[in-house]
């Protein structure tokens, strides 16, 4: 450990507590501009982000090291959010801070014909992180109760039971040693408009723009309803949702980094003991 | 492009030319302490590495962006080297500089029972990078003519034809649009001893130590012979090997970063044009 394990003093409250979804919270009331629990401002972000990326990377290496010694635990980050909420930025700037060796990234777009021919959790199960790895879901099985519900891709009789199925699925993962960090990222309609407009101004951003994003934007109220149901019905003790306001990218990145650090610290890891006789190996090495 | 596209002036020669394996080069003569083509020293490395990581990340994003517009090209980095040569450090410090979204990492350890029940290229084909991705092989199909040959895991009649098979396999990949960057990393026996000793001194490094590393070390002459055959027989015009001296980690990281940048520049990419009417979309967005 090269760093003390305390929460940085710029945080007044632990993000895992402060941002945890609580029954009764209404999606329509979420202030995407807010910076809950943080007493600093944007000028504090670059230095703090770099420091915390280093801490995150250390813990990730320890998780990986333990898996080599037989520990089967893993971590799964689930990112859900509307277009432009900043999921890609989290992958690049937060997850990107740790060793690619221990990361399994998967984006869940429109299902392929093969995926559609299976149960909706089939492609999700295939992408689960191996022991010692951090899995990153850029969108996830929650698409099957979000876009699927909003666009009526299947009838209510099909998506309705999925909330319970997802809870059972996640309980199974947690029992098997996967810590799940679920993050719902919220950007305001105004901020989304600015971000989409920026993509239309810059030729190096055109590829991120999809005319369908505007169609989704028009369905905002239906999405709010679907997000509300998701939070109300799938935020469990073993896999709670966290609400992250994302109008300020620097804040959402800091907050999600802390959520990951806190989850890894919760595993109470130390470096694995050697499975060989250290002194005997030193002698062997000296001789060759 | 936020950076001029010239080779940094600290390089006297392009690494892809300087480090390319040439017929007649003997593995036994490789100076692992050397820093070919580089006129700077260790003190120049941190700043230059950070700058070039940024350039590499930009080009990686462009490769990824083009794949979203239908470009099927990809890049495959093949890392081969003895224990402690620094393969893991390249993954962490070089590949780690770009967006995990576009990277597919795969380490090839001892084959599983299922893998052994297939052709040796089966597991390799499954790990090939998708369009727009950078695949990273930490060890690779070359294990099947290195450790397999040195340890007599299959008879010569089985491994002998593999050199030609591998060439045919790689030709197929290149024809299909994958640029292959093959890097043979060389560390000296003395430096390897130091690095193994360090792992035995630090409890946070024990997990990287394997008593089998010493057994491999004792087979150094046989490995040199196997590496020589690999270079002599599989360095092709379409997928040449590069020899990277690795006693100085800062050098090997800078060199491999340049090899990747040069390979990506060779794809002559630009940002993909929009597949929508930009002005029409601006109007649509303004209205919602």
TrEMBL record, chains A, B:
BP terms from Gene Ontology: polyphosphate metabolic process
Q: Which residues cross the membrane?
A: none
Q: Which domain of life is it from?
A: Bacteria
- Entries under Pfam families matching the protein: PPK2
Looking at the record, the residues that make up the Polyphosphate kinase-2-related domain are 50-266
GO MF terms listed in the record are: phosphotransferase activity, phosphate group as acceptor
Give the SUPFAM superfamilies listed for this entry.
P-loop containing nucleoside triphosphate hydrolases
- What NCBIfam families does its record include? PPK2_rel_1 (TIGR03709)
Q: What is this protein called?
A: Polyphosphate kinase-2-related domain-containing protein
């Amino acid at each position: 450990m090269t760093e003390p394990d305390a929460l940085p003093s710029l945080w007044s409250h632990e993000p895992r507590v402060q941002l945890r979804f609580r029954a009764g919270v209404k999606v329509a009331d979420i202030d995407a501009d807010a910076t809950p629990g943080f007493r600093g401002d944007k000028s504090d972000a670059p230095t703090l982000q770099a420091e915390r990326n280093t801490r995150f990377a250390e813990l990730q290496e320890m998780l990986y090291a333990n898996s080599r010694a037989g520990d089967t635990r893993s971590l799964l980050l689930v990112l859900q959010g509307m277009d432009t909420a900043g999921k890609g930025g989290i992958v690049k700037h937060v997850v990107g801070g740790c060793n690619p060796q221990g990361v399994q990234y998967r984006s869940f777009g429109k299902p392929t014909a093969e995926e559609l021919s299976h149960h909706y959790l089939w492609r999700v199960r295939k992408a689960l992180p191996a022991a010692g790895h951090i899995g990153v879901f850029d969108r996830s099985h929650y698409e099957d109760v979000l876009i699927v519900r909003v666009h009526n891709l299947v009838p209510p009789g099909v998506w309705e039971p999925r909330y319970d199925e997802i809870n059972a699925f996640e309980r199974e993962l947690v029992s098997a040693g996967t810590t799940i960090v679920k993050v719902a990222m919220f950007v305001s309609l105004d901020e989304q408009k600015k971000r989409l407009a920026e993509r239309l101004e810059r030729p190096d951003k055109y590829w991120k723009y999809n005319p369908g994003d505007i169609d989704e934007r028009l369905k905002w109220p239906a999405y709010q309803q679907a997000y509300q149901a998701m939070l109300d019905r799938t935020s469990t003790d073993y896999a709670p949702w966290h609400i992250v306001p994302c109008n300020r990218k620097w804040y959402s990145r800091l907050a999600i980094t802390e959520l990951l650090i806190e989850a890894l610290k919760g595993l109470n890891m130390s470096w694995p003991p050697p499975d060989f006789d250290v002194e005997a190996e030193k002698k062997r090495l000296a001789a060759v």
